[in-house]
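Standup notes, protein team

Yesterday: finished cleaning the Paenirhodobacter hankyongi set.
Today: Siderophore ABC transporter substrate-binding protein structure.
Blockers: none.

Input for Siderophore ABC transporter substrate-binding protein:
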Amino acid sequence: MKLAAFAGAFALVAATAATAPAGEVEIATARGPVTLAASPARVAAYDAAAIDTLLALGVTPVGVPEKLYDPDLAAAEKGATPIGTLFEPDLEALSALVPDLIVVGGRSAPKFDAVAQLAPTIDMTISPDVAGDAKARLAAYGTLFWREAKAAELGAALDAQIAAAQAAAKGKGNALIVLTNGPKISAYGRGSRFGWLHDLIGLPEARPGLSPEVHGDAISFEFIAEVNPDWLIVVDRGAAVGAEGASARETLDNPLVNGTRAAKAGHVVYLDASKLYISGGGYTALSRTLAQMTAALEG
């Protein structure tokens, strides 16, 4: 699906914001348009992608989950008050923080109603249209925090990276996207949490029809050998969350996988798992994933 021009996103936001009372703006969220007080000073954020994009815009939350798993979010962890986990808010700590705005999304979205009792709350969940939502959230935060120029600059940079990745993918064959969790392997196709790599970059699926479910399709080494992809794109869940056990490289180092076209050609790409599994849809996460894919495809 083609993404709308970033300027168009800002035009829409500006049009809606113009109808809001002075000091308020209307922004797009995962639950629809929401009107908020502009430039909230004390933000508590429970979503890694949201924290990623806020940091890119120069907005540092005062409260974040106690562990974010993404090294690029360390700056947020250092100066902020721990307010629970990515899944479970610490309502007492959150209340003591007296936030002006609470941001949930993804893993924390089910806790929307609980935290919304304490302060205005927005759900900024990223859908399987990761790039489209990443740009929409960037535009929304730019409007909310009066940082439209910076958001537009970052959006233009993403557009350039997307174009570079698409150019690099042309004529390079198909791909199979897999996630490893120790010895377990799942495959992901179009419409899934990682399927945007097919849709956005333009790499055809090596095996069409995979489940769009959040956990993907459980597969075997034999399945990978049978599909025999031109490219094998790997996300290591264990590495993302610091789990013990076999790494993705160890799990996939066997004759069946090594006999595929991808392995023989050196086309097995181990993406930075924290950027896909933890912070997927954040500005820096998306930028780094696009850069990694472009480098692999051009190499």
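Follow-up from PR in the comments: The chain is about 45% helix and 15% strand.
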